[in-house]
Structure formats: C-alpha cells, structure tokens
C-alpha cells in the first residue's frame, strides 16, 4: 500500500548519523560520572542544554546538544529532547545544562518545570529521565573523594518528589 502512496504523499525515513567514532563508551553509575562528561560545559560562555543517551546497561550511547542559548537562558521543549532519544533507541537519558554566569548553582522555577515536563514525557514514551544536572564554574566545589571532580547540582537529589509523583492526566 505504501508503494502506491509515495507518488501522492511525501514519505519520510528516519536515520541516525553518528558524527564521530570513539573508543569504549563509559557506564554511568552516579551523577558524578555523568557530570564528568559534562565538564566542558562548566566554562562555556552561553547556556547549553544537552542530553546524554544511555542503553539499558546505563552505558553511554551518545550525546545530543538540544539547545544553545544566551548567557542566562536556553529554550528547551520535550519534543526536541526526545526526538534524538527515540532515533537513538535510548533506554534512558540524563539531561544537563550549565549556568555560565558562575552564580551559585541552584534550580530555578523554570528548571524544575522543565524537569517535570521531561519526566512526564519520558513516562509516556518509555524513556526514563534519570536526572537533570546543572553545572557551572564553581571554584571550591569538589568531590572530597576525588578532588578532580566538580560536584554538580542534581535536581533529582534536591527535588525527589518530581520522580515520585504519578503522571498527571493529559
């Protein structure tokens, strides 16, 4: 049937393109593991919102820059976050954005609302949102066990109720 329709309607084909081949992909066991991958964002002059894509063993399968904004904002919509996750066949994602101003790392109302929307959309699509991290240039914030790591702000740790609540009626 599709064969006959393609002469009347545009037919789309989805394809994932990997931009670079890398070595062994890391496994994510904690927010600190993910934060280490996001370290380059700490010093970016504009806000970036990225999604780390994971398979069912929580191994990294890829990274997608969802949005690149201004000094203080980056527009994010669940459609853009999950588009790449669906094409990459992701089991779960960890999202992260940076606060380039160097201001104290804290989740704004917008950060919490975005996280809530992503968790709800992920539940519908069957893709877990493991955490939403915020990173930035914070001198003095280091993991006491491993001084080379920066401690990110984990919205999951600060607001666990976002992950515990039931999906709202749509």
From TrEMBL:
PROSITE patterns: MPN, UPF0758
Family that this chain belongs to: Belongs to the UPF0758 family.
GO biological process assignments: proteolysis
One Pfam family linked to the record: RadC
Name of this chain's protein: JAB domain-containing protein
CDD domains with a match to the protein in the record: MPN_DUF2466
Domain MPN: 20-149
GO MF, one annotated term: metal ion binding
Matches recorded under InterPro entries: MPN (IPR037518), RadC_JAB (IPR025657), UPF0758 (IPR001405), UPF0758_CS (IPR020891)
Keywords, ordered alphabetically: Hydrolase, Metal-binding, Metalloprotease, Protease, Zinc
Membrane-spanning ranges: none
Domain of life where this protein originates: Bacteria
